[in-house]
Amino acid sequence: MKVAVPSEDGVFLSQHFGRTPGFAIFEVADGNIVKREYRTNTFTGHVTEQHHGMGDHEEHDADHAVRTHGRILAALGDCDVVIAGGMGRRLFEDFSEHGKRIYITTQIEVKKAVELFLADELSSDKPACRGHQ
Known about the structure:
alpha/beta; Nucleotidyltransferase, domain 5; five-stranded mixed beta sheet; 3 helices; 5 strands; globular
């Protein structure tokens, strides 16, 4: 099983899922971390995307969800679990519809967040949305 965690640097959890510089990917087996990699975020569009003016915000958000959620789902397609500090409701629903389990944490270190997941100490009940709804 693979677990994806949005991360600033492979060590600390990103505060904004869509603007994360990358994702720490952990392969786990038998309750242990067996492999770890870091994927640079080239797929959400937020990292390099220029934001539009206030008048374009709603149209931009609807178009953005269609464009970037598909890229995120494809880029993390081999991952079964996503751990985040929070994410928008639409992305949470898209991940869920594609069979991903989403867990929310206040832990700031990615490895510790994965260890909490392995110990069954993370919540998956609801999206703790930050920012976008």
